[in-house]
Design a protein that fits this description.
heterodimer; A: alpha+beta; Rossmann fold; OB fold (Dihydrolipoamide Acetyltransferase, E2P); 6-stranded mixed sheet; 9 helices; 17 strands; B: MetI-like fold; globular
Chain lengths: 332, 268
Amino acid sequence: MPAPAVRLHDLRKSFGDVTAVSGIDLDIHDGEFFSMLGPSGSGKTTVLRMIAGFERPTGGTIELAGRDVTRLAPFDRDVNTVFQDYALFPHMSVLQNVEYGLKVKRVRRTERRERALEALGSVRLEGFAERRPAQLSGGQRQRVALARALVNEPKVLLLDEPLGALDLKLREEMQIELKEIQRRVGITFLFVTHDQEEALTMSDRIAVFNNGAIEQVGTPAEVYERPASAFVAGFVGTSNLIGGVSVRPEKIHVDTQPEGPAQGDRQALGTIAEVVYAGAVTRFVVDLEDGGRVVALQQNQQTSSMDVMRLRGSRVRLGWKSVHEYRTPQED
Amino acid sequence: MILSRAARMTLRCVMALGLTVIYIPLFVVLVNSFNADRAFGWPPSGFTTHWWTQALNNDGARTAVLTSVKAGLGACALALTLGTMAAFAVQRYKFFGRDTISLLVVLPIALPGIVTGIALSNAFQVTLQPLGIGLGLFTVIVGHATFCIVTVYNNVLARLRRMGTNVEEASADLGADTFQTFRYVTFPLLRSALLAGGLLAFALSFDEIIVTTFTAGPGVQTLPIWIFDNLFRPNQAPVVNVVAAVLIVASVIPIYLAQRLSGEASAH
């Protein structure tokens, strides 16, 4: 079996008295789109910076394709980074930016020009080669940063919240584009984000970070449907605790006729305390008769805002299937 | 801010008056360098280039200009090297006493020249004289560098702060070694700051007279000292005027360049 693209073993990092990363073990497979998801300060960016070589680990090892790079300088590692603020060179043209990695590796001028233009083409920026970074929009700069990294054909591409500075619409477009590019070039992508939806949308696998440690590693479906801890359940999506088990809001059916036939094999009665109409879906906040509060999410397939807003205060019956329940280990 | 008509007029007059007070005397110096009247009678009695020829052939003036250029370049080079290194140390590294170092580097520009002059003169005589190095051009350069460092230091520090470490990290990430990163990324981004700081350093050194007086020793005469010595000799006064005129023109160039470079940099 080939060595994993990235292998972290007992990786640790402290800044003075503050422990940023406390003993991480992780294998990232070749060609995988892997996300490190967690709130800010959870250590995910520090792990990325240690893999890139910008931070020296306090302990543990980093292997890239079986080679120990823990002590190597950034320029001796076969990884490239797309930075959060892009870090384009302001005094160079777009083409010179993209060429840079090839230039310092002494690739011949004609070849590097050709490869740089090709990389610019792959991010749909052919016509922008002679522009300066300052003359580009945020989304274009983001794509230049991507081309500048990809042109070097690294073993692993590190992406540090690369979509964080873009507005929502552009971000959603770039999510799809990034995923397509990754599939096309077949390079391992290691993607850092605090946006759970982004991680679920794009990743083959996700590691959920909390307090400098990994809470769970799994596919998006595993992390969402079977969260390994209360933290994961809460951070990835919303989670309802009903009688000791957890249920996701979209799995709960809201029935406005409490006496009607049951939906699913589990039921609870309650009163709608709040109705949040959000276009495609409506979020109901329901106070249960047995105590506790539950959020249920319904698609607005048949209903409109007029209908759902009237429902506040009505008595409802909630129904769900026991297969959608999950238990998370209680934290001390 | 919206000003009343009267206020606008008043402010315009004050500004005109201020600029007049500064620039009319300089203009008079320029005109007088061509004034045929030896006593600079006004209005000029006629046009002559006699003083200019005389000045160009004046050995004292020519040597003094050369000495000043040497001192300026020397101080400038020293300031560029040390100022840049200090700025990197303070901006890029955390170490004990960093703020104190920063203060100590900037302080000499605020110290009265007379204090710096006396202190350096004493120190040079105590430490260098026994080694056989007397006061001369070298001590002038070191003396000037003490306060010239500040202009370079401040310019480079500000640039490094704005530049951040991201682009250098990006360069290393793309495979550039430390030297390549400096050559292709750090230095080009610093260049205009170095030029602006260096020009100011040169200008500071070029017209310095107090510290120079204490550190030059008997054999070395910079231009300001030569002018000061000759100013009150009636024979030399017209030549001094020409030299002053040359200096006015020569000063405009570096200051204009320095200002344009800083302006360009902040426009990024």
